[in-house]
Amino acid sequence: MNFISEALESQSENTRTKKDQQSLETKFQLYTDKTEEGCQILFNQLETLDKCSFNASLPLVMIVHGWSVDGILEDWIWKMAAALKSQDKQINVIIADWLTFAHQHYPIAVQNTRHIGQEIADFLEWLEESIQFSRSNVHLIGYSLGAHVSGFAGSYISGTTKIGRITGLDPAGPLFEGMSPTDRLSPDDANFVDAIHTFTKQHMGLSVGIKQPVAHFDFYPNGGTFQPGCHIMHVYNHIAQYGITGITQTVKCAHERSVHLFIDSLLHNDKQSTAYWCNDINTFDKGMCLSCRKNRCNTLGYNIREERLPKSRRLFLKTRARMPFKVYHYQFKIHFINEIQGKQIEPTFSISLTGTKEDAKNLPITVLEGINGNKTYSFLITLDTDIGELIMIKFKWEGTAVWENIWDTVQTIIPWRKGTRRPGLIVKTIRVKAGETQQKIEELANRYKEELKFCTAIFLHNC
Questions:
Q1: Which of 51, 175, 198, 369 is such that its CA lies 20 to 30 A from the CA of 288?
Q2: What is the pLDDT of residues 387-425, one digit of tens each?
């Protein structure tokens, strides 16, 4: 006899308490492959668990939507449910429908998040008490306001044992930014909490998504402020795809990107996105944070490495504009020596990479700060494809007129003697680090200006 059958038999022999008799405003729909409406599980009605084929021996993933403008469950909810089942069919997937409370003016919906959090906590306690379903097997995935609903559910559930995991997908910012941990999603709300921040761009002091860390691991794709492919210039593409509602799609594009990054992690097991611990996006953009030592990197999405930390850890990564979102991160550290005294050089050059699997050609790099003296400069380069092990780097210097002007200037000052090497720009060393594989390569260049003027190839394995 299974847990549900035993509970049904026990329930018929006992009188229900007042708490047992109450109903919840939240609708709990068990997702099935057959319909987009799901099978509704009614609180304190064990027969509905049996009718919907809820399997008490399997983990539970509950999807919690956010604020609703039109009072309808959004398409991404069913896409995520289907993706969860495709990833691992040995789970229960429940959609927590709180549209009645979410389809309100935003400040009212915010007030309602605590009430819905309490209802989800009550529902999970009921599963625990009636069919011995462990809360540690529960994973709440909350989007926008739903992220904070999930946090309240985790904090309101009775007892000392916590919910297994909460994932916040771009947790809502307005009326939550800067609040204490008890008034928003926080690392204390589950055994493990992760969050993906995709739309923290501020306007008049507010941002759609919360900017501050709220989890054990907080991911900031592309810096978290905005996402590629979501600029207003893409509104025409969205209108072509969605019709007039494409305008709305453009507005919520970056906010909802968190959802699709998570779905992507479910659908593409072979293309899991790696993110790296870093202080800020400016440092990350220089490629200076691609270390995986001492758990400094982690996988974004469903397959994250779960690790409780004493302090929130902010991780950064770059992504593509569409699924699959994964890119490959490389740091290039180039040591330049500028021999032309008092002359700042601002060259632009491209790099081509040859790998064991594929090649990547003409990747532009610009030294934003200009090259002075004897210094190492760091760059971040991302590739859409996996080129394999790096075996050759090729430089191509752009704008040769810049170099010629430099030589004209120098030659008016210095009388050249035949056979004497002219002062110029030297590339002393090149260091490359691949974030995804942690492969490191260092080569000594010592190539003079005459050789760098057009194209230089650095062979890494005596090819």
A1: 198
A2: 999 888 887 766 544 444 444 444 443 443 444 555 566
CA distance 284 to 108: 38
pTM greater than 0.70 = yes
**What CATH number should be reported for the domain holding residue 426?**
2.60.60.20
Kindly report, residue by residue over 342-387, the tens digit of the pLDDT.
Answer: 666 666 778 888 899 999 998 888 666 667 768 888 989 999 999 9
Q: How many CB atoms lie within 10 A of CB 323?
A: 14
- What mean pLDDT is predicted for residues 101-121? 97
Could you tell me whether strands 192-196 and 165-169 are parallel, antiparallel, or unpaired per DSSP bridges? parallel
Element (H, E) at 452: helix 449-452
Give one DSSP letter per residue of 269-283, joined into a string.
TT-PPEEEE-S-HHH
Alpha-carbon torsion, ordered 172, 174, 175, 176, to 10 deg? 40
In this structure, is residue 121 part of a structural domain?
A: yes
> What type of residue sits at position 164?
G
Number of domains present in the structure of the chain: 2
Is 189 marked within a binding site? yes
Contact by Cβ (8 Å): 156, 135:
no
Distance CA 165, CA 156 (A): 15
Buried b (16+ CB within 10 A) or exposed e, 169-205: bbbbbbbbbeeeeebbbbbebbbbbbbbbbbbbeeee
Within-domain flag for 410? no
CA pair distance 363, 361, nearest whole angstrom? 6
**Do 234 and 129 belong together in one domain?**
yes
Q: Which of 316, 322, 144 is nearest to 230 (CA)?
A: 322
Please count the other Cβ atoms lying within 10 Å of the Cβ belonging to residue 278. 22
Q: Is the pLDDT of residue 58 over 80?
A: yes
Same-domain pairing of 364 and 263 = no
Catalytic residues: 144, 170, 255
Claim to verify: residue 292 and residue 214 sit in the same structural domain: yes
End-to-end distance of the chain based on CA atoms, in angstroms? Answer: 68
Digit-coded pLDDT (tens) for 122-178 = 999 999 999 999 999 999 999 999 999 999 999 999 999 999 999 999 999 999 999
Q: Is the dihedral of CA 110, 111, 117, 120 positive or negative?
A: negative
**Beta strand residue intervals within 98-160, DSSP E:** 138-143
Q: Determine the Cα–Cα distance for residues 454 and 380; give it in Å rounded to an integer.
A: 23
Range of the domain at 426: 328-400+420-444
Say whether both 193 and 70 belong to one domain: yes
Q: How wide is the angle at C-alpha 211 spanned by C-alphas 109 and 264, nearest 5°? A: 85
Distance CA(371)–CA(162), nearest Å, equals 54
